[in-house]
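Fill-in record for NERD domain-containing protein.
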Amino acid sequence: MWVEIFCGLIIFKLLKWFFYDDDVLDLESSDFNALFSVANRLEKLYGGKVYVGLRIPDADSGSRQNIDMVHVNKGEAVVISVKNISGFVSVNSDGSWVCEGGSKHKAERFPDPVAETKKQASILESYLEQRGVALPEGYFSCKVVLPNPKFWGFLVLGGPFPSEVITYDEWVKLKPEPKSMFSGWIKSAFRGGKKEMQESIHQKLNFTLSTAPMWDRLELKGNKYVLGEFLDFKGKQEDINALKNIRRSKVSRLIIQKTSMFGLAHSKLQVLYSPRDYRSEGASGSEWKEVTVRSSTEVLFQPDNSTEVRKFKLSSVVSLTLSA
């Protein structure tokens, strides 16, 4: 019996090593997943397009400003900051937040999220102007979303509750109605304007945001995501040679498909990738190319806000999107 148990444990560890990745398991409640959860719900509720993980050049600081997401609908757009915090938040008179009782078991301090989001909107507007997209005054609005169900509540010290903040209770009650909280964020800047002008600016804005600098995006099994920078592949030399054409200058996206479920040492994966087309957002289905590599091949990826380079087995990856 002990031999059977021992063999069972060995098989379990082999299967876990092959089908799972410790980094994947660490990301079950990550801030990245919260971003994409919010973005997906916004598109389902109100349509339009949500751009996640923008890195907008800031001319004043000479650096890039990270923006969680921008939700674009015709005649309006919202810059959104997502705070995946739990516990109880105190808002000081200067707008800064102190979060206590959360999952990290220690008080966390944040600069005023509302002020930061408004600054991001200003930087984004300047960037769009530089790229020839002049938006009417008041086109952008700002919101801070708290989507974590373990968020308990607010205590505001020395001022009113910030109207730009959407708490968890408010977030789950949103409905796809014309007068709901999200669809009524912005007074349309084009009311009474020409329809042609509305559509022209809307198209320019969407094209510019779709080609703006963004973080690379790694989609993992189990609807998990990581934003950061793709560095390289690691594995057998023949697999690396097969993947040599997958570089951000040439490829915009790759998708992983399993071709063999068994034979752990020799299992292969099918990698489909689309050549980059700078005139549009992606390639058509007929333009996808294909290579086959070992499932043990790894993706080297450095997540945003981390100094550690992580390794993800291709067997745990669904897709990889590379910023231009």
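KEY FINDING: The chain is about 25% helix and 35% strand.
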